[in-house]
Request: fold
Amino acid sequence: MTSHLISIEEIDRAAIERILLRAQSFAEVSGREIKKVPALRGRTVVNLFYEASTRTSSSFELAATRLSADVINIRSSGSSIEKGESLRDTVQTLTAYEPAAIVIRSPYAGAAAQVAQWTDAAVVNAGDGKHEHPTQALLDVFALQRRVGKLDGLNIWIVGDVMHSRVARSDISAFQTMGAKVTVAGPPTLLPRDIEALGCSASPTLDELAEADVIYVLRMQHERMQEAFVPSLGEYAARYQINHERLRPGQLVMHPGPVNRGVEISADVIDSEIALIGEQVKAGVAVRMAVLYELLVGTTTLAAVA
Amino acid sequence: MTQKLFRRPAPAADLLITNAHVLDPRTGIDGQHDVLVREGKIAEVGAPGSLSAESLPPTAPTMDATGKHLFPAFVDPHVHLRSPGQEYKENLETGTAAAAAGGFCQVIAMPNTSPVIDAVTVLRSLTTVASQQAQVPTGFLASITVGLLGSDLSPMAALADAGALGFTDDGKPVTSAGMLRKALQYQRLAGGVIALHEEDPALSGAGVMHEGAVSARLGVTGIPSISESTMVARDSAIAKFEDARMHFQHLSCIESVEALAYWREAGARVSGEATPHHLTLTHEDVRSLDTNFKMNPPLRSESDRQAIIEGLRSGVIECIATDHAPHARYEKEMPFEQAPMGTTGLETAFAAVYSELVKPGVLSLGLVIERMTAGGALYGLPVPKIETDAEANLVLVDLEASWTVGEHGYVSRSQNCCFDGRTFAGLVEMTIAAGSVVYEHGKELDR
Reply:
């Protein structure tokens, strides 16, 4: 049976630790002059992106390339997708090339799970609507662990537009699986009703932000103003921007990118030592290499790689 | 009197059913009986072994129904037969054949077709086709507003004269209270029930499932229950003010049941229906993002489901309606947020409700039979009854037989059934509608 990575909930703590351990060895590969291993030589990875993406698509491409796979990148603009071909037909067409893996980014929840039903390839969810972004969650855990060690007992606040964030949903789950306590905070209009059912706490203010060890800042999109979720970016920034006035010493800050400098996070925080943003991006390649390896090569030959 | 039900000509049934457990909550019959059907009418109901087929033509069959149940056949006041314009999903023949297979003897079709049933010509063409193709008697609702656009009244009086049982913009609410009020006033001239799909678009927004813990997890935009209930409350108030007859379709949440109970008590002439899926499933079933679980109104929370069950039990909700809504396979093979709303339901309605609510002891069999046969009366249609001289509208069911939904395909043209793959008890063996045998399990009837 082909295994997939559709939802972060599908993998337990042991599996996350196994993938991240392997990511660590791949991170070392990335430090070498020749940044390649032959693990996926002769196999094909399809990157199927129905949404604009810079870091996710480039890091998946780089990850597959560094594993020596042949890579096909398909974006919705300029492809048959633009001509109205259905997801199923596109996937069946690509499946004819017998890819080992299909990496899919879609604006719709559940798209990756559907693709998994229509192909023999291993499917990696690179973001499905506002639902899940499991490799982002893995790289966030990876980057954070590298800075602080184990996440057990860590207090993590996820701040901002939780409602429209797939990163938030995957991170809530991943951080909790790794033993952290998660609080989501943001404008009440952008905190989903019954979000506490995910096991986290929810707060409409940052009054208790001092209790956080780590603050994970979400991107505040301009479209949300038009939909009247918040009155203005100014009012949002006044109440929820993560800046040095709100932070206490010892707190760390993360952000999935791309950042709106001066909106959800101040420019000086982005560029400071307490921000892990660059480390998150860097972790992306190694973690995605580890995910592709886990799905396509498996667990038994861990020692043989790198 | 204007003809309100249409079906193809079919031979009147002659048969003797022996040893069936006959149950009709309206006539009070509940026990082993023989039932003699002659020339499409119930000629006699007698003690087991007391009736003979002597008075029937020599070819008339005698069915030994030992261990099986005979009920008045079901009535579905809410189906989408997709004709005209969307025959790739369903048509009058396939949809009514699915109804026959589900034990129904009457169905009422919704007007959100293409074109919309908002003109006498459209309705006439449909009743003509139904008179040639419908396997079971079929009635039609016409739209309240032209094109379901909410801005101009349909010619309600002319449509009623042409056979419309009532009016609905089902699939959409009548958003403007002023427009709805005019339709209710016009009802005094046209007659017919005004049936409403209740939903405030400003509250539903881009929602595609129930707003709650599951939508929070899935990151899928939710439809809050107040989207429905605030409209039930608003429109009940208008109905009372105009002393109009109003029916609420597919109620889905606690707040709507409460609003309906309140306004009924206050004297409003309002009624309600519930679907088998809202009675048996919740938003937890949507976790898989299987598009067969996408319908409008959405599957809601367990407490909402309990409130719908309680409403059905107490009679606040008078009837079960399937909201049978077929869609082509390729339409449902889309990501959840893009797929069309709706589930088929005619072939599974009784088995789902029986297996999930009657067998576990939540509702009595008699109550379920009453609620599954009450939907036509709300639109002024005669109620199927098991009594001497009544037109034969009967369904023979094997409550012991279990079957897996979709295992042998569907009679409907579409497969988008939210119960697909589930194993249910309660198999429809035979359906008699308006005096004719319209379905026998395992037998392909001449169509």
Remarks:
- The longest helix of chain A spans residues 277-296.
- The first strand of chain A starts at residue 44 and ends at 49.
- Residues 300-306 of chain A have pLDDT under 50 and may be disordered.
- Chain A has two domains: 8-133+282-304, 135-280.
